[in-house]
Amino acid sequence: MTQTTIAPLAARAPRPTGITVYGCADDEAALFRKAAPRWGIPLIITELPLSEENVMLAFGRRTISVGHRTPVTHPVLLALSRIGVRYVSTRSAGFDHIDVEYAAQLGITVGNVDYSPDSVADYTLMLMLMAIRDAKAVMRRTDSHDYRLSRHRGRELRDLTVGVIGAGRIGSAVVERLTGFGCRVLTADTRPGDDHVSLDHLLASSDIITLHTPLTADTHHLLDAARIHRMRPGAIVVNTGRGALIDTDALVDALEAGHLGGAALDVLEGEHGIFYTDRRDRPVQNSALLRLQHLPNAIISPHAAYFTDHALRDTVHNSLLNCLTFEENENS
Questions:
Q1: Contact 8, 40 (CB under 8 A)
Q2: How far apart are CA 60 and CA 20, in angstroms?
Q3: Which of 42, 87, 196, 209 fits 18 for a cystine, CB–CB 3.0-4.6 Å?
Q4: 88 with 111: CB under 8 angstroms?
């Protein structure tokens, strides 16, 4: 991804009021602290996610940066508006953890960030390859010192049709990678395009279906029970977008019944409070997740596709850029 060069603030707009950065891990914090002095930005950084308890850390500031791991609730948005915050930059491509319309009613603008699409695209291809080569079952057997080959041979991508739902930056990067494998690729998107097919055609024709569309009211449970039933028998579902794009219970039912051949999911409905935590000594209260983990043809990872050093640099840079641009527009 090409990054925009920002001139020193002294040559541009009045000095910003500062930015409060919430939910910031150590590696993120190091990048924020490195960039801030160069641009003359006073920062308050906390590893704690934004909440009603720490909202006053943003007092006197018009802009804040938040992570995607914790929902920003209505009471928190109301509290932000009362102390003068007017812009929230979420360090994610998706907005599903923030009610953007409610924020707008309060006079708060919400902006997302672009980051390297290669992070998620690479991970998506990895999950596809793992799924068609039965990697989960192979590694489980190897871990128990069973080194026999599987009874089921793997498949090669060049022999398959892959359906890509959502042809934005990440979906397009996935298509670019798939081209190198020589497989047939179909795309479906809400935006018009001569090369897109209908969603129904894609579902009925694809051996692998991968999801890269934003989560909205219209795309919630985009793959519901009816659409999963219309998928090709033995098809594999890959999701590195948002968990609620799929009716998870319907997906698990189709896997357990043998209608689908597998699933590789980096995101899951109900992941909040489970993913990004150590649950080895605490019960997991998500029945669908537990059912999936018992299936040899279901691969689960904890919303990690974006997690690369390059994507992190982009995320920090563009979150700061969002806030600076808002400040500059406000002062112009």
A1: yes
A2: 10
A3: 42
A4: yes
What residues form DSSP beta bridges with 65? Answer: 21, 89
Q: In angstroms, rounded to a whole number, what is the distance separating the alpha carbons of residues 245 and 298?
A: 17
* DSSP codes, 208-270: EEEE-SPP-TTTTTSB-HHHHHTSPTT-EEEE-S-GGGB-HHHHHHHHHHTSS-EEEES--TT
Any catalytic annotation for residue 53?
no
- Domain range 19-115+309-331, CATH architecture: 3-Layer(aba) Sandwich (3.40)
- Average the pLDDT over 267-289 and give the result: 94
pTM above 0.85, yes or no: yes
Which of 68, 97, 212, 303 is an active site residue? 303
Residues 132 and 236 sit within 8 Å (Cβ to Cβ): yes
Residue with tokens 């309060």: 106
Q: Where are the domains of the chain?
A: 19-115+309-331, 117-300
Q: Where are the beta strands (DSSP E) in 121-203?
A: 161-165, 184-188
Q: Please confirm, yes or no, whether 196 is among the known catalytic residues.
A: no
Spot the catalytic one: 68, 169, 242, 317.
242
d(CA 173, CA 115): 12
Domain 117-300 has CATH 3.40.50.720: yes
Topology match between the domains 19-115+309-331 and 117-300:
yes
User: What is the DSSP-derived secondary structure letter of residue 150?
Assistant: P
Non-local (6+) Cβ contacts of 7 within 8 A are none
DSSP 307: -
Which residue in 212, 271, 317, 327 is the catalytic one?
Answer: 271
Q: What's the pLDDT tens digit per position in 166-217?
A: 999 999 999 999 999 999 999 999 887 778 999 999 999 999 999 999 999 9
Q: If residue 87 lies in a helix (H) or strand (E), which one and from where to where?
A: strand 87-90
Overall residue count recorded for the chain in this entry: 332
